[in-house]
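Format is sequence with structure; example below:
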Amino acid sequence: MSKPLFVQYCAADFLAGTVTLSPMAELAYRRICDMIYNNGGNLRDDDVKMAMATKTGADWDDVKTELILEGKIQIHQGDVNERWIFVQRCSTVLERSRKQIAQRKAAGEASAKARALKTKDSDSTTVGASVATKPSTKPQRKSKELLTVKEVKKESPPHPTGGPPQQADELLVIPPALDRRKPKTPRTKADAQAAAVAASVRSATKPIGAQLRERQNKPKPKAKVKRTVPDDWVPGFDALAYGRKHGLETDEEIKRELTEFSEGSRVHDRRYLDFDLAAMQWLRDPSGFRADADRRRAGKGSGKRRDGSSILEVGARVAARAGNS
């Protein structure tokens, strides 16, 4: 199926969904969504190409990690050495656009077929009308809607109770063209075929209300939950090559950092959405990643300030300072 040329875009949803992102991450996320819409599907996870396509350059690794941790993008494993960038909202919008295109296409084809049948039948009717027929000698009677008041009085039935005939203003004469209570009978064979095609299209296409109810009742995919690194976790990438690429010299040093990353997650309750990406960030800057994780954990409902001191310790220092003065 060809890719949609247009998709529905809601500015309010995008602004609300990117309010917590950094400027570079918001730029990259917007360009990723536009590229997915333009391609009609997911993007190949190529760090070199994505660094140029998102205009983030050398910051692409950090931006990618932030988007994954915030749940904006997901990395799906395809064939061997092939990974794809997946955005759930983009997939939903593309699927909705494809359904609308298919419905409009089916309606257009049905309308064209009905017009062709009607034209063919009218041409055959015109040819058959040219054959001479014997004029009828039976007197033609006026249609019911063209009767005058006097004619209506003559043909008025007697009153049900035996009284005088019903007056003209007592009769309810409804012309056939205005009688909405009876179904309209097709005049020609082409009209009947066109009505059958239109009815089949209406039965095949679900009403908008039914589509909205199905969309509301459809179960939402479960969001990923941050978890600590399990005991049996094994890196899904070449950790030794990645560590040497980012400044770690020996294999023992790299293994030691990975062990500290795994055990520190369980000891200090450090939780992650993607263990491989978190391990990559750890190997790029072990000391900075460790300090940043501890700082976020300490400032999250622990009753401590960013410098590590508790509220009681701060209060004791303030009281001591006031006593010395």
In short: The beta strands are 43-44, 74-77, 83-86. The chain has a mean pLDDT of 75. Residues 95 and 132 are 59 Å apart (CA to CA).
